[in-house]
């Protein structure tokens, strides 16, 4: 039988936003990279290639019918029911909760389990319409960085076009590990770059090892390193004083701090040798240079300050607004595409304000009776949230009516009163986006959902009907929304395509030539300039200026625990794929061999990693790529798949970073001892 080839796109939480080619024979498919796509070039990353041809297309692994709890919360004991019964039960119970305790007692939490636009945003219409409370999505991930760069630049979701690297001499990658979190960028964008790649990371990652220069600062000393680089640039006359005069405010207030950041002081705070600081400063300042700040960078106690400090590098060297320059945190393509995200999420439906809480307070806030119902969709907090012991105890509350929408029986779903089966990206039409390349892709339905599974939007349309809601926006069909988004994109970019035409192409770039942002020198700050000194920051109770800060080193016998992206899992997605689990191997904690000798820990030895938040049993690996006094434990494991707690979030204390009430997970301190 001849295979039918269908183009679609990957909607995972990833920088690469790859194109996919599905080969379909009858009801059997093979998921491949699209050879015509500029990023995937015919090859998917290893993790997606396995999972999309594994657990994601295994009907036996998927949820296929609504499930009603029949045992205790957390037991995973359910019985299958039909949609009519499930919707009627949920409608009655949710209505009763709202009537007795108010709509703000309904809390929903969601994030980027899918980055197809309708599946990602449409369910918010339901919660906006009822006035529910929400867990601020970005507080689990990147809120501190957003706040920091909004203070500095007025925007944190546009900065450079990766295609502009053809005009660049230097790419500075700070606190990102593309070899795990953007494999195609690692292989192609950085691997084929003709200039210097500088990587700042306390771990000698594959990307760092391939770089022209790797700076491995002590965790928590990023801001001090940024000022050390600025000191060299100022001393050697490498700052762009004309750009500073025209496009920034507050530089004169910062000069004393820069002058104090001598090579000796920088080495004391960061552990980076003066010659390496000088080399990096010269390469970057001479430019044209591009700065890529990863999200992991700002997941630390002073992560916002670190982002403000690092953002000074392009600001003071003039590496902005010209080909081959710029800065990037998240390049959110729907923003440039002109898609009205507020409309898509139903912001106008909200008549009463619910509460907005941080993931850092989720376990504590759920422990009381403030919230009486919890909806979870596009996320798995029983794997990804901090203080897992406290959170799981709160999820066991009998008076917390919990509904989970997912493709799989996740750790969170095991605590639900109802689990509703969601369709995967292969089973409905949508638009996809990433947060690095300026692309919009068509997500094309290639299969029927297994059993009675439904797309997110249809599930929430049915929930709205069950609750007796009447607003037209709650029932808008997918095809109407797709047509409207294509029209919005056409108006903003001049790219005139229907959704059907986009499906044929797979994906489109939002501009034929690389986009140069801020070429006009206009920024979305109150002054219209880069605000080195920020009155807004002062109003928020923050320092007026970025600080040359470094966290204190861990006390003797303590380690700073880093839990970054895994090579094989995508956050906590794919942890339930058997082949992925096999490739991932046993759960480990990696420490420097010198630390191992001092602690009396041998390679391969079972150890207990602990702090006041909890403890987990892992296998120690002695790894020279890990900085001293640092422990590395990759995130994303499901405890239900491991037989015991082996997820680093059992150790993650819910301490907010300095900005945005955001995660400071990479500031976690632990002790490691033989088991």
Walk me through this protein's architecture:
The chain has 675 residues and is an alpha/beta fold. The chain contains 27 helices and 27 strands. An eight-stranded mixed sheet has the order 5-4-17-16-15-6-7-14, with helices on one face. A six-stranded mixed barrel has the order 22-26-23-25-24-27. A five-stranded parallel sheet has the order 10-9-8-12-13. A hairpin with a 5-residue loop joins strand 18 (430-433) and strand 19 (439-443). Helix 9 (222-235) packs parallel to helix 14. The mean pLDDT is 97.
Give the topology.
Blueprint: E1 4-9, E2 19-25, E3 28-33, H1 46-52, E4 67-69, E5 78-80, H2 83-101, E6 106-110, H3 117-121, H4 123-130, E7 133-135, H5 143-153, E8 170-174, H6 178-181, H7 183-190, E9 196-200, H8 206-209, E10 213-215, H9 222-235, H10 241-247, E11 248-249, H11 251-260, H12 263-270, H13 274-286, E12 289-293, H14 303-310, H15 312-317, E13 326-328, H16 333-337, H17 341-344, E14 356-357, H18 362-367, E15 373-377, H19 381-384, H20 388-395, E16 401-406, E17 418-421, E18 430-433, E19 439-443, H21 456-466, H22 478-493, H23 499-505, E20 507-509, E21 530-531, H24 535-539, E22 558-562, H25 578-584, E23 588-591, H26 593-599, E24 606-611, E25 614-622, E26 630-632, H27 639-642, E27 669-674
Parallel strand pairs: 6-7, 6-15, 7-14, 8-9, 8-12, 9-10, 11-21, 12-13, 15-16, 16-17, 22-26, 23-25
Antiparallel strand pairs: 1-2, 2-3, 4-5, 4-17, 18-19, 19-20, 22-27, 23-26, 24-25, 24-27
Helix pairs in contact: 2-21, 5-14, 9-11, 9-12, 9-13, 9-14
